[in-house]
Design goal:
Blueprint (H helix, E strand, L loop, with lengths): L2 H15 L1 H6 L2 E6 L2 E7 L13 H16 L6 E10 L8 E12 L2 E9 L5 E11 L8
Antiparallel strand pairs: 1-2, 2-4, 3-6, 4-5, 5-6
Amino acid sequence: MTPKERAEKSAASMWANDEASKWFGMEIIDVNEGRATLALTIKAHHCNGHGICHGGVSFALADSAFAFACNSRNVSTVGQHTMMSYMAPGRLDDRLTARANEVTLAGRSGIYDVRITNQDDTLIAEFRGVSRAVGGRHFDE
């Protein structure tokens, strides 16, 4: 099995049970070893009292991209620590894309950066996540 095939199979297994990401309206665009790209179109129910995308929605998008990237090797992995910097607001009907990339993986811990942009490639937010492998697999190999 290639690393991309493993990542895709891990993602499919996780997606089958990921009701939160589906509920938000996210979709997986691409996965590979140590990487994942997810997208979401901002709808009215994603907007806060300022009429812009709620920070929790963009955080959830980044967090889901992080999850699919750090679980791409078929090892059950969770977030240990995260942080997000908001740079520009997402607006109604914007198409947000979150691209997660592995920075380093050492033993059971990894660091991942996620960049969220809109359809015009405007930077919306940057996220950093630290992962921790907890054991177990998404599928039998």
